[in-house]
Design brief:
Elements: H1 2-100, H2 106-205
Organism: Pedionomus torquatus
Coiled coil: 49-83, 141-172
Domain DUF4200: 1-99
Length: 206
């Protein structure tokens, strides 16, 4: 009876242990899931913090560039103000010009001045183009003159050679004409002698 009672007690304890073991396992699984979830949340938090730091650094850089740009714009504004102050005398001068001229506004004077500047620029450019064309034409003319002078010199040399050949030919003609006259004279003499001989032979024959 005691043994059965102890076995019942042990069985109850064993069931309790199994129940507690199952509860402990469930708790461990929940705890592990919670830890993983916390790790994930912590990683996301770190990632978000890193992005926030990068965003903050980017914003700080942008702010620094904006400050530098603002300072640069302030400097430019100051320079422009100084230029306006410096050139204010010209505004007074232009107003006086408008008063004593046919222009009605300062802007018309400026437009007229810009038009004259463009015309002057076009004239200078045209003059420059004409000058370049003139220089090119001069170069071409010099080349043409050199070529023609070389041709003229060549023709002169050929003409001298032809003149020498003509003189030589004239000398040869005079020589051969003299030689032909001598031959003709000799032939005439021989013909006369032949006639005399024929006449003598005829007389002798008769």
């Amino acid at each position: 009876q005691e043994f059965r009672e102890q076995m019942k007690i042990i069985s109850c304890r064993w069931r309790d242990l199994h129940t507690k073991k199952a509860q402990l396992k469930t708790y461990m699984e929940k705890s592990e899931m919670t830890i993983k979830k916390n790790d994930k949340i912590q990683f996301q938090a770190l990632k978000k913090a890193s992005k926030e730091r990068e965003k903050k650094m980017h914003m700080e850089r942008e702010l620094l560039r904006a400050k530098e740009l603002l300072e640069d714009l302030r400097n430019k504004r100051q320079k422009l103000c100084n230029r306006v102050q410096k050139y204010s005398i010209f505004e007074k001068y232009l107003k006086n010009v408008v008063e004593i001229s046919q222009f009605e506004e300062i802007q018309e004077v400026i437009w007229r001045y810009e038009t004259l500047l463009r015309v002057r620029k076009d004239l200078l450019q045209s003059q420059h183009c004409h000058k370049e064309m003139s220089e090119q034409a001069k170069v071409l003319l010099d080349q043409y003159m050199e070529e023609k002078e070389a041709e003229i010199l060549q023709y002169k040399n050929e003409l001298e050679q032809l003149q020498q050949h003509f003189d030589q030919t004239q000398s040869d003609i005079l020589y051969w004409e003299t030689h032909l006259a001598n031959i003709q004279n000799t032939s005439a003499k021989k013909t006369q002698e032949l006639g005399t001989i024929k006449l003598a032979i005829l007389n002798l024959f008769q």
